[in-house]
Amino acid sequence: MKYLISSFVLASSLILPQLALAEVEVVVHPSNSAALDKDAIKRIFLGKTRAFPGGGEAVPIALKEGSAENQEFTKSVLSKTPKQLKAYWAKMVFTGKGTPPRQMDGTAKILELIAANPNLIGFIPAGSASGGVKVVGKF
Amino acid sequence: MRNRILWALAFCMFAAPPFATAELQFNGFASIVNGIDLEDDGNPVEGYNSDTVNNLQDSKVALQWTADLDKGMRFVGQIMAKGSGDDGYLLKYDWAYFDFNIGDSGKLKVGKVRTPLYKYSDYLDVGFAYHWITPPQIMYSGSFNNADGAGYQFNFETGALEQSVNIVIGRYQSNDIERVTPFDLRNFITLNWSATMGDHEFNAVYAQADVYFDSAGVTAAAAGAGAAGIPAADVIVAGDLGQFVGMGYKGTFGDMAVITEYKIVTVQDSIIAEEETGGYVGATYNMGDYTYHITYEFGSTKAQTYSQAGGAFQPTADSVGGEGDASAIIIGARKDIGVSSAFKAEITSQTNDQATLTSAGAKVERTALILKVALETMF
């Protein structure tokens, strides 16, 4: 029993921080006052609209495919599995209806780009936002 | 010499900025398919017989490039090599168009664009995006998927209903690769509506065109009709109104999904079938990396009939396709490999009594049991 509890504590200490790390925050330029709920974010990241609610061009950018944050965002916000998302973009790309968000190498690049461009919207690991961006949702 | 240098400089000044600013993106997909007709009776069905070596007609490799130009404008080109039993792979431009963003969700395309007649028309060649190796062939029998013209597509929301309207206006002309006889659809208009509400997807299509089709069979039938006192105009296919109505539904219920589509095609005042109908009902079941599926499809063609005071004239069925029914059952499985490749296997049992006559004019029922395997990817 003692071993069982120890194993559980050890497993929890290894797994839980990773789960917490996978949480994502959606960020925009501080001047962006659009009302962005989960549905609006989903529509922008699936290429169904090119504008923020209320107006203004919306250009989504993403963390690299395969990253824990990308997987969490795909699951929690887009309500898709990575395979479903791949098939979705296959349809969109090869019908000329849209292209997937450009993927960035890391959080720093996303923060830098969004701080400099009011049209951009992206997601980053929770808690890593800088003063140059505004957090509009945590998932 | 000096003039040449000046011209070269002038060319560079004007030509270089667009090249420098246009951002190119490449995507592609490939399907390697092979199959065999296990009930080969000497008449290939869907192009398959008992010889597996030449059965490459469902294989394809495509490369698409997108050049992002300024002001919401792009150029999209797709070149595809399709397998051909006799000639290996044949290369052709599948589409090539400019598109322009209009408003928040509208897109105008000008050039060679896809005609959205069926639910899967838009990405018919991208096998990776659906569960079959090829969509049901009785339903998807039309050989024309593109038109030279313009298309406008826009999305909008009505409550929980996400809707999309796609209008394509243009002309389709067959080429030697697709058909040996000229097939021409002029004033070709397609109006496609699709909607999604949660896990339910709906689509409806109306299309029409002035149809032109010329072949030795049609000419012979027109001559026969003339001798029987029937106006040649009622037989030949020259500017006759062709109409297409289609509809479909897909519902996802957890790991299961049901899919159905139905179509009606007519071409007035011509030897082409008075009415052609087709459809399918299918289901899929996901289990991890595996998707299992079953589809029942059916089709029926009602031949044009001609009657007159002195008797009846019936054109021969092999001139342009005759009356009859067809049905098929498709059972298959898909195994996803990673997130961008899949292996598929499926078996199709088909029965078809259309357009096959004995020398005495009696109908022959043609059957086939086609086993296909495919490896598909996109990048």
What does this structure look like?
The complex is a heterodimer of chains A (139) and B (379). Chain A is built from 5 helices and 5 strands. The radius of gyration of chain A is 17 Å and the shape is globular. A 5-stranded mixed β-sheet of chain A has the order 3-2-4-1-5, sandwiched between helices. The N and C termini of chain A lie far apart (36 Å). Helices cover 43% and strands 17% of the residues of chain A. With 139 residues, chain A is an alpha/beta fold. Chain B is mostly beta strands and 379 residues long. Chain B has a single domain, classed as Porin (Beta Barrel). Helix content of chain B is 8%, strand content 57%. Chain B is built from 2 helices and 18 strands. In chain B, the strands form 2 sheets. A 16-stranded antiparallel β-barrel of chain B has the order 1-2-3-4-5-6-7-8-9-10-11-12-13-16-17-18. The longest helix of chain B is centred in the N-terminal third of the chain and has 20 residues. Chain B is globular and about 60 Å long. About 5% of the residues of chain B have low confidence. At the A-B interface, helix 4 of A face strand 1, strand 2, strand 4 and strand 5 of B.
